[in-house]
Amino acid sequence: MNNDKQDSPFGEVIYSYTRKQALADGFQVDVSETAKEAGIQFPVFLTRAVFDAYVAVPPNVNGQDLAGRLWDVLWMLRFAIQKAQQGTDRLTIELLVRNDNRRPKLVKLLATCGPLDIDDPSPAITVMLPDED
Questions:
Q1: What pTM does this model have?
Q2: Is residue 93 assigned to a domain?
C-alpha cells in the first residue's frame, strides 16, 4: 500500500464536523469576548446544552440575568484554569446555579482545551456537560 498520498495513518477522512459548522448550526456558542474580560486568553465556546441550562435564565426566575450567569461560568472556568496543573487539557468546573426561586444547586461542567477548528490548530476551550464528551 502506498502511503505517500495519505495525510493520516488512518486514511482518508470520510466526514468531519467543524466548529464553524457547530456555531452556524447553533450547537456551540462563542463567548470569547466575555472570556477575555474574565482574563481567559484563549477563545471559549459553550455547548448549546450548557448555555441553555446554566446561562439562559429560565422563565419566572427572579434576580438572575444572562450576563451575570455567563460571568459566573467563565469566572469559575478561570479559577479552574489557575488551579490546574501545567499540561492539563481537561478540567472540571463546579459552580452554584439557581434555575428556580429556591436554593442554588451545585453544577459540574467539563472544560477541554483543543484545536480551534479542524483547519486551525490554535488552542480553544470548550465547556460542556460531563456526558457530552
A1: 0.87
A2: yes
**Strands, E assignment, the chain:** 28-30, 44-47, 90-97, 105-117, 120-128
The per-residue pLDDT for range 66-87, each reduced to its tens digit, is 999 999 999 999 999 999 998 8
- Say how far apart CA 35 and CA 42 lie, in whole Å: 8
Range of the domain at 42: 19-132
Contact 96, 104 (CB under 8 A): yes
Give me the residues of the chain with pLDDT under 70, please: 1-8
Give the long-range contacts of residues 21-28, CB within 8 A, separation 24 or more: 28/126
Query: What is the residue whose three cell numbers read 456551540?
Result: 28
